[in-house]
Amino acid sequence: MTFTESLGRIEQIQGTLAQFDPVAASRAASAAAARRSSTASALTGSLTGSLSGSAAGTDFAGSLAAALGTAGSDGTAAAAALGTPTDATGLSGASGLSGLSGLAGLAGLSGAVGGAGSSGPGLTGDQVAAAAKRYVGVPYVWGGTDPARGMDCSGFVQRVFKDVGVALPRVVSQQMKLGTPVASMAQARVGDLLISHGSGHISIYLGDGKAIDAPMPGRTIQVRDAWELRGNLTAIRRIVPEAAAAPGIAVPASAAAVGPATARLDPSQRRYAQVIVDEVRARGLPARAAVNAVSTALQESSLRMYWNPKVPGSRELAPAGAPRGTDGYSVGLFQQQVHGTRFSWGTVADAMDPRTSTRMFLDRLTALPGWQTMSVAAADQAVQRSAYPDAYAKWESTARGIVSELYGTGA
């Protein structure tokens, strides 16, 4: 372990002490301050040499200030501000503490807050994602665990989960054994750990095809496209309990307040219903157009974004946890056909995008002569040309209720 890594480890221990024994924490902080003071010129020279005069240095300083937020002068975040437990019950995860000089009193402690890899009942994947994004711009440093200097991939993951009150071990090979396994990216949720290249790399999934990690030397922590969707994925581990994990699709505030009709929809269904209503309103169309679109989507997909193995690229464009369909070459909310020029509604990207697919539906609906005087089911069938023309009628009442609540006027 290098000297820099040793200091980082000492500061980790300091953070643990601060939660359980403020007096011991004060002594440790004083000792650490003395050690840092004796080597300040060397460390300052190293840091200045790597960041001086560069835009990266400015970004790092800003990112660090944002990341540390409520941190104290020694870089240890206040336990109360982070909502971490303040008693020593079940302490697990401070492995190695008992062997350090001056900390013999901790020899009986066998773990970290809440147990290694365990999370409190109130923790959500969104909280993990928010904690991770605070470190955007912090540089990659191999072996690093301290955002004041930089972090590597597993050090970053460890720090993020520590911030939300969950103790994880230090290296990928240990982190990838915690929590529960997730079968595939289709089932991945916000806050899940993505392990790739054997045990060579780890990142945090943010949903909607995005991940965040400390990537490699010379780079900084950033939100990126989750290339794990396309390959090199070794394992997915869920640290946040399934019941508490946030869905991969965020629900906008406009769809958060629900009434009797929308209350029967799950968060992703409400989001898609809101997208449809927003597109209708943006065009200046009457609420009736949204009833047509929502009733069609309820019949065709139950307001879900289906991908299809017969349509190349549809799985990669689907959100996390999206269902798999097998009907012809149909994909997306409206099960629009994507198969060359025959039966084609557009590109796979068009059909898999909720806004674009809604626009394609509305284009065909409003092109129908007298569509507003037709029955809802007849207009839906004229657009979709389904093998089951009578199926749309049963969704009209539900669609009217959903649109009335989301559109803000009678449907």
Automatic annotation (TrEMBL):
Family designation: Belongs to the peptidase C40 family.
Domain of life (superkingdom): Bacteria
Pfam families according to UniProt: NLPC_P60
Presence of keyword Mitochondrion: no
PANTHER family: NLP_P60 DOMAIN-CONTAINING PROTEIN-RELATED, PEPTIDOGLYCAN DL-ENDOPEPTIDASE CWLO
Protein name, UniProt field: NlpC/P60 domain-containing protein
Species per Swiss-Prot/TrEMBL record: Terrabacter carboxydivorans
Domain NlpC/P60: 122-240
Keywords carried by this UniProt record: Hydrolase, Protease, Thiol protease
